């Protein structure tokens, strides 16, 4: 009987989108119909009220619904609820003249693909429609591919199920009496060529003795079945030898004699052997691979830590014998964690693979590159002539890694921090060399990353200084050495200061004034962020009392919130109690969070931020566009403000230029009714470009640097005097750097 194979699928039909246009204003509906009619591939259906729309949705399938929210008989939201309740597969683009953010949020919460305000820009509408339909085209294609994969899987199962092992029988002389066609498929021997020939023609010469022992045994009891691994020859020499697991069983004929009353005689006569040979070549190769992987990193195919230490040990022995030097490098990829967190672990693994290939191309013959752990690599350079050789290779590494990485359309830039230890001056053991190279690498990290450094004994002292720094930071709270600085936020239309961002400073007793970037990352690593954040909330509230006493109660204070602090269970209670104790209005506080906070525990973060909003505190997304950028969380999270990161602002060099990322962020903020603040504004060109494109609030060195509380109060006093009635006719002061 012929096997039943999976039925081939016909080619997918051409995608012809059908659109339903719903608007109660005939003129606008007609205009929209004519705008889309020029697209020959669109099938257009119109409706002037909700009833017609629901009837059309019940009658036929639509790919896209262009929906006006305000209809005479029902709202667009009700139509979207109808679509969702009946699980109608149709994307929705909402077009509305309502100015309130509630309508947009309601539409987005109901799954709208996009929200356009009337009057809409025709090119923008066409682009939005095409993007929505393109998404559906991709979905159709994905469905088709999934079906093909399913058919392919069925075919694969059939092929596996219908591919038996080699089955054979031998007579009492060891000659083949039967063999199936699988012998030809695997070994290249036709069945007709094997029948009547001795099994030894297939057995590898080195396995002949073992085969002779197992095939010549004469067992007919429960021990008749046994297994043996043999290498069999292939008729095609290019294919090499293959290993088979042979299950052998002796076959016997029971000759039954004449029956004598009360007595029965049975004679066992050896007849031959029945066997099943299973190809285990792949298994043997897998065993070899397992042995290989025990000493190699699976992801990068580089030697792992075990093999690296073994080779380093051999290199040290040779260096001792030959009285030569060798170098050990410790490499850590800068910014890898950011890429891994924002793009995901799959892209992070791809980045590690590409980085490993680039590093390997820079090595000399005889050098060993290994993956130590995570994004760390180690290298041994044997037979070093002088340190210049190690420096030259480190320079090559940095040049190779600074080139952009393409991760499936995501262009990523990284660098490396490299520490170098030289034998025998920096140590004569494996542990010493690795530890000293690691210390040198962390020295590069502390100096701003993206460089290399040779180990020096003084670096041990610096490691000790880190411990001292931790102890000093713990005492800083007790000794009242921390202080809040404030960077004003300026309204471009009026020139007034309307807000300020609170930035922490440490008045170190010996090192002077330290910025937050110099000690807060260290505090996060050492579990000090929670007590420091507690101090910050109290300090900000005390400073706000002084603001308000001097007539600045209309100025909003922004504070940066550590993800560790948000994850703390009593964070909300601490914030609420502090505001109540100092009698600060919650509306005067804005909490800044980074986009990456959404990755840690998004549902918990939403709950905490919603509590803040119910209290009256607003929420801002800091460094927008540099982290886990997703439009979905803009309506899931209670966001009020978007802050454009200074890395995007820094790229503005021409006020008439085109900077699409900036424009996209401004458009998102405008479309969702969010407040917008540009950070890092340093030039007039940047300020004019941002203002011309709709960003009204700015923060940066062009206006003010972060300043201490007393200086900030003086600036506010000058602003208040300039706004006094007596100075109403006087020209306003120009904002100056402080």
Automatic annotation (TrEMBL):
List each copy of the GGDEF domain by range: 324-457
Residue intervals of the PAS domain:
152-223
- InterPro entries xrefs: Biofilm_reg_signaling (IPR052155), CheY-like_superfamily (IPR011006), EAL_dom (IPR001633), EAL_sf (IPR035919), GGDEF_dom (IPR000160), Nucleotide_cyclase (IPR029787), PAS (IPR000014), PAS-like_dom_sf (IPR035965)
Residue ranges constituting the EAL domain according to the UniProt record: 466-720
Q: Where is the Response regulatory domain?
A: 18-133
Q: Which domain of life is it from?
A: Bacteria
According to the UniProt entry, the coiled-coil residues are: none
* UniProt-listed GO biological process terms: phosphorelay signal transduction system; regulation of DNA-templated transcription
Q: Which positions carry 4-aspartylphosphate?
A: 68
Key words, A-Z: Phosphoprotein
Q: What is this protein called?
A: EAL domain-containing protein
């Amino acid at each position: 009987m012929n096997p039943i194979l999976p039925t081939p699928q016909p080619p997918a039909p051409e995608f012809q989108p059908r659109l339903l246009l719903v608007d109660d204003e005939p003129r606008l509906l007609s205009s929209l119909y004519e705008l889309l009619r020029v697209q020959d591939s669109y099938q257009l259906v119109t409706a002037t009220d909700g009833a017609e729309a629901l009837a059309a949705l019940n009658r036929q399938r639509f790919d896209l619904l262009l929906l006006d929210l305000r209809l005479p008989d029902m709202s667009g939201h009700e139509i979207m609820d109808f679509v969702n309740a009946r699980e109608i597969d149709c994307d929705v683009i909402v077009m509305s003249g309502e100015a309130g953010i509630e309508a947009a949020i309601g539409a987005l919460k109901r799954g709208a693909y996009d929200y356009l305000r009337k009057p809409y820009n025709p090119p923008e509408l066409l682009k939005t429609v095409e993007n929505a339909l393109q998404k559906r085209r991709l979905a159709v294609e994905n469905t088709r591919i999934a079906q093909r994969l399913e058919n392919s899987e069925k075919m694969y199962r059939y092929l596996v199920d219908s591919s038996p092992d080699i089955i054979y029988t031998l007579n009492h002389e060891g000659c083949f009496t039967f063999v199936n066609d699988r012998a030809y498929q695997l070994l290249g021997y036709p069945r007709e060529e094997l029948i009547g020939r001795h099994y030894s023609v297939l057995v590898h010469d080195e396995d002949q003795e073992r085969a002779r022992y197992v095939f010549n045994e004469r067992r007919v009891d429960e021990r008749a079945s046994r297994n043996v691994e043999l290498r069999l020859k292939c008729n095609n020499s290019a294919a090499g030898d293959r290993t088979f697991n042979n299950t052998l069983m002796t076959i016997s004929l029971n000759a039954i004699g004449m029956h004598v009353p009360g007595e029965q005689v049975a004679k066992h006569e050896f007849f031959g052997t029945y066997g099943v040979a299973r190809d285990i070549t792949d298994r043997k190769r897998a065993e070899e691979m397992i042995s290989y992987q025990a000493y190699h990193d699976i992801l990068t195919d580089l030697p792992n830590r075990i093999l690296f230490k073994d080779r380093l040990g051999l290199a040290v022995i040779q260096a001792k014998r030959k009285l030569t030097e060798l170098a050990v490098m410790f490499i850590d990829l800068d910014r890898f964690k950011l890429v891994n967190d924002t793009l995901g672990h799959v892209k992070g693994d791809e980045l590690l693979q590409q980085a490993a290939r680039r590093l390997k191309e820079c090595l000399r013959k005889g050098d060993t590159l290994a993956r130590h752990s995570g994004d760390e690599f180690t290298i041994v350079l044997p037979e070093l002539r002088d340190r210049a050789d190690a420096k030259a290779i480190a320079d090559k590494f940095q040049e190779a890694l600074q080139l952009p990485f393409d991760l499936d359309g995501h262009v990523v830039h990284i660098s490396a921090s490299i520490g170098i230890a030289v034998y025998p001056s920096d140590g004569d053991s494996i542990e010493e060399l690795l530890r000293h190279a690691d210390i040198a690498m962390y020295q590069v990290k502390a100096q701003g990353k993206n460089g290399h450094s040779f180990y020096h004994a003084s670096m041990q002292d610096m490691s000790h200084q880190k411990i001292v720094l931790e102890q000093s930071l713990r005492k800083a709270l007790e000794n009242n050495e921390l202080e809040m600085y404030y960077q004003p936020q300026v309204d471009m239309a009026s020139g007034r200061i309307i807000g300020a961002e609170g930035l922490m400073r440490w008045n170190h007793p010996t090192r002077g004034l330290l910025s937050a970037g110099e000690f807060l990352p260290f505090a996060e690593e050492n579990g000090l962020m929670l007590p420091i954040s507690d101090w910050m909330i109290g300090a900000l509230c005390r400073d706000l009392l002084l603001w308000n006493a001097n007539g600045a109660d209309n100025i909003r204070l922004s504070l940066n919130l550590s993800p560790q602090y948000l994850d703390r269970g009593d964070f909300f209670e601490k914030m609420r109690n502090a505001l109540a104790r100092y009698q600060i209005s919650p509306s005067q506080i804005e909490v800044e969070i980074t986009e990456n906070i959404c990755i840690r525990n998004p549902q918990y973060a939403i709950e905490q931020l919603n509590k803040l909003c119910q209290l009256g505190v607003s929420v801002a997304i800091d460094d927008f566009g540099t982290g886990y950028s997703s439009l979905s969380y803009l309506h899931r999270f209670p966001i009020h403000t978007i802050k454009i990161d200074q890395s995007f602002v820094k790229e503005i060099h021409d006020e008439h230029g085109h900077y699409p990322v900036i424009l996209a962020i401004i458009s998102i903020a405008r479309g969702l009714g969010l407040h917008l603040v540009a950070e890092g504004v340093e030039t007039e060109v940047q300020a004019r470009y941002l203002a011309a494109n709709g960003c009204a609030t700015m923060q940066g060195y062009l206006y003010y640097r972060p300043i201490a509380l007393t200086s900030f109060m003086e600036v506010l006093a000058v602003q208040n005097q300039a706004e006094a009635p007596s100075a109403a006719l006087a020209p306003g002061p120009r904002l100056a750097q402080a």
